[in-house]
Design brief:
alpha+beta, Nucleoside Triphosphate Pyrophosphohydrolase, 8-stranded mixed beta sheet, 4 helices
Length: 146
């Protein structure tokens, strides 16, 4: 018997965040179908670093610009149309938010605290990454480096 090979597709993404009233808020976006809450992520653009490619996705999907931390937060996997996607995640400190961005007509955005984000995202393998940044010390440490 032959085994079917599952294709692994590597992606990168960011968790956009800001500090509001001394609390961490993260920006979630909807999938293009509008059914689920996710974070910006996508295929790695040729010739770009993982971080730069993730920042590009943040602009295209969420309309945010900012500073991406070089330290990987971790990764999560998801399955779609018979393929496995592995997404390496980074923090993005949001410096600017635009209402005019490439996927503005496809997606909604929502700033939420980290605990709310954990409850809203459907992808269970993304939840531990969000839980790791729920600790204020992680954000403080990263914010001083970027």
């Amino acid at each position: 018997m032959s085994q079917k090979t599952i294709k692994l597709i590597k992606q990168s993404g960011v968790i956009p965040y800001r500090i509001r009233d001394e609390k961490i808020e993260v920006l979630l976006i909807t999938t293009s179908s509008g059914l689920n809450w996710i974070v910006p992520k996508g295929n790695i653009s040729k010739g770009m670093s993982l971080q730069d490619s993730a920042a590009k996705e943040a602009w295209e999907e969420a309309g945010v610009l900012g500073l991406v931390d070089n330290q990987e937060l971790g990764y999560y996997k998801y399955y779609k149309q018979g393929k496995v996607y592995k997404v390496k995640m980074y923090l993005l400190l949001v410096r600017a938010v635009s209402g005019n961005y490439p996927e503005a007509n496809l997606r909604r955005r929502r700033w939420v605290d980290v605990q709310k984000a954990i409850s809203l995202v459907k992808e269970t393998s993304l939840k531990p990454i969000l839980e790791n940044i729920a600790c204020r010390d992680v954000i403080n440490h990263v914010s001083t480096r970027i």
